[in-house]
Structure formats: structure tokens, C-alpha cells
Amino acid sequence: MSELTTDREIIADSLGVGIGVGLYGVTFGALATTGGLSVLQACALSLLAFTGASQFAFLGVIAAGGAPLTGALTAVLLGIRNTFYGITLAPMLRVKGLRRLATAHLVIDESTAMSVVREDPRQGRLGFYWTGVTIFLIWNLMTLIGAVAGERIGDPRAIGLDAAVAAAFLGLLWPRLDSTSSRLLALLAAAVALGLVPFTPAGAPIIIGGVAAVLVGLRFVPDTTGVRDD
Amino acid sequence: MTDLWWGVLAVAVGCYALKLLGLSVPDRVLEHPLTERAAGFIPVGLLAALVAVQGFTDGQRVVLDARVVGLAVAAVLLWRKVSFLPMLIAAAASTALFRLIVG
Questions:
Q1: Do residues B71 and A190 make contact, with C-beta atoms less than 8 angstroms apart?
Q2: Using CB atoms, which residue from B5, B36, B59 is nearest to A65?
Q3: Of the candidates A13, A34, A17, which has an alpha carbon nearest to the alpha carbon of residue A164?
């Protein structure tokens, strides 16, 4: 079936995803400046870190009154998945030198998702770059708009922005809740985090809750990858 | 430079380095089954903890407030496969509406 997918369709799909996700940068910008970051800091994160979940995680810790370095640790831990995306993508992208330095910046959830579904490596690259570049441009533009407007919004709670951030994390989590074990691990992480909130500095419950889920997962979830015949 | 700027810089450098690492290392190095499995659990654990803290806490306290309404709406819409942005707007709007009515 994949040979029936035209380049045109791939570009259209990539643009659709890219615009939809990129627009959401306005939420990041608005929340960043209402949460205590400057316009410049919000834009620096979108330009230089450019990975939504990590940016929101950093913001979540800062807004909760946590130390910036605790926030950074949480954000970088969340960014580890991009390393594994890169490993998956490397044989298809085949980039070296300066091109690799530039391409690496586009390795995020959506660009990976829009390329690994293609069987033809050339079409995979097409999906990767169109999605990645579209999101990069719109995400950064919308971050700036949101950051400038955000300072005028006042109390973000009045328009429910605090719930929108929680919903954003839920939206990122949702596709990963595809098995009983992952749902149980998610509940465990949430419970550990909430249990620690009254007793630990802001940011710590997120990291400890996350690490608890990883340790329990490694210990108790059956290893399905080992079933492969190699 | 302020602490906040150091944090921003650390996020930027750390996240970019992790992306570049993926494209740069030979497959063997990170193909260890244990690291692969851990990588699958990390987003689930961290994102669930983030939902919990962002949705159910206020400073050092665990609370149940209008955000629950937004999260419930979000969950239903995600289950119905509604796309990301409309889902977020609905979550924010329902929470805001609930606050307006209940006060």
C-alpha cells in the first residue's frame, strides 16, 4: 500500500501535523511568561531546546516554585527519548557533518512519528523534514506571540490555562497507555509524585515518581523485546 | 546571569545534546536491552507524574479543584480521538466555565 502514497500526500500530512502542533506554541509562550519566565527566555527555550514536553516540564517546575536546575533535570530526563528516536532515524536520514548538526535539532516526537511509518527511506526523509521544519517555524513564531500576549493575560487560571497544561501532559501520555502494565506504571508514578508533594521541594516529586515507574517497570514488566529470535 | 537563565541554558544544551547523540552513536552502544526498555518507561513515568502534579497540587498541597473538570473533559476527548489543540481548548474552557459558575 505504501507505494501508493504520493509525495504530495506525505507533504500534506506533514504540514497538517506541523501546523497543528506548531500553533500550540502559543500556549507554551503564554504559560511561560505568566509562570515567571521573560519573553526572551521563553523564545530561547523554543529556539534552542525545541522539544515541547521538556519545555513544559521545565515550566511546570518553575511555576510551582522549584529551583531552575531541578526543572532542567526534569526537562533533560524527558528529552532522553529523543536520543532513541535519533538511533531509530539515523539509518534512514544518513546525515554527516554540518547537516547532522542541523538535522539533530528536528528530532522530536512528531517528526519521528511522521517518518518511521514510511517504508521508502526517501519518503521517510520527506516526512521528517517537512514535519520538523514546519513545526520549528510555527512553534517559534507562536511562542513569541504567546509570550508577548501572555504577560497581558493576567491570572492564567481565569481562562483555565493551568488545566490546559495538565491536559497537554495527559495528551502526550495518552498514546503510551496502550497496555495494562503502562497504565499501572502511570498510576504508580502519579501516586508516588502526589504522595511526595507535601514533603519534598517542587520538582522532586516529578523526578522521583518517574524514576519509581522506570524501576518498577524494569523489575516487574515482562521483557517482550527479549522474545525476538536473535 | 540569573539562576533562571542557567536553567534555560541547561535545558537547551541538554536537550540538543541528547538529540545529537542519537544520530551520532553506533547502534550497538545504546542497543542494550535494558536501556531500550528503560527508555520506554521514562516518558510514561515522567508524564504521569507531571499530570498529577500539574492537575492536583497547589504549592505543597494536594488539592481537588476545577482542573479535575478540564482533565475529565480532556480524557473523554482523547478517548474519542479528538486532536490535540481542540482538546486543550476544551479542557481550558470547561475549567474556566466551572470556575465562573462555582466561583
A1: no
A2: B59
A3: A34
